[in-house]
Amino acid sequence: MKSIRMKITAAIVDTMDGVNRTITESADGVSMIAEKIGVAVEKTAEGYEHLRKSEESLDLLKELIEKFSM
Fold first, then answer.
1. CB-based burial label for 27 (10 Å; 0-12, 13-18, 19+)
2. How many other CB atoms are found less than 10 A from the CB of residue 38?
3. CA 52 – CA 16 distance, rounded (Å)
4. SS in 3 state form for 4-15?
5. How confident is the model at residue 54 (pLDDT cuts 50, 70, 90)?
6. How high is the pLDDT of residue 27?
7. Residue 61, CB half-sphere, CA atoms under 13 Å: how many?
8. What mean pLDDT is reported for the chain?
9. Is 20 exposed, middle or buried (0-12, 13-18, 19+ CB in 10 A)?
10. What is the pLDDT of residue 70?
11. What pLDDT score was predicted for residue 68?
12. Which site among 38, 43, 61, 65 is 20 to 30 Å from 28 CA-CA?
């Protein structure tokens, strides 16, 4: 009887260890995804800033061209 209990207890412990590893790996995966999303957001913001500056430069260039056209 004691041997069966020990086997059952060992099986439960092994299962709990497996669940713990799975949860840890999942948490690590979520952290990596969050980090990549943060980088993507940062790059998007940088891209927007470059676009805004390009539009400003384009507006200035148009003004200069209009001055020479008159």
1. exposed
2. 10
3. 53
4. HHHHHHHHHHHH
5. very high
6. 97
7. 6
8. 94
9. exposed
10. 67
11. 85
12. 43
| Paired tokens of 43 | 């790059």
How confident is the model over 25-53, as pLDDT tens digits?
Answer: 999 999 999 999 999 999 999 999 999 99
The two three-digit tokens of residue 60, written as one number: 């200035």
Q: Hey, how many other C-beta atoms are within 10 angstroms of the C-beta on 25?
A: 10
Residue with tokens 């799975």: 22
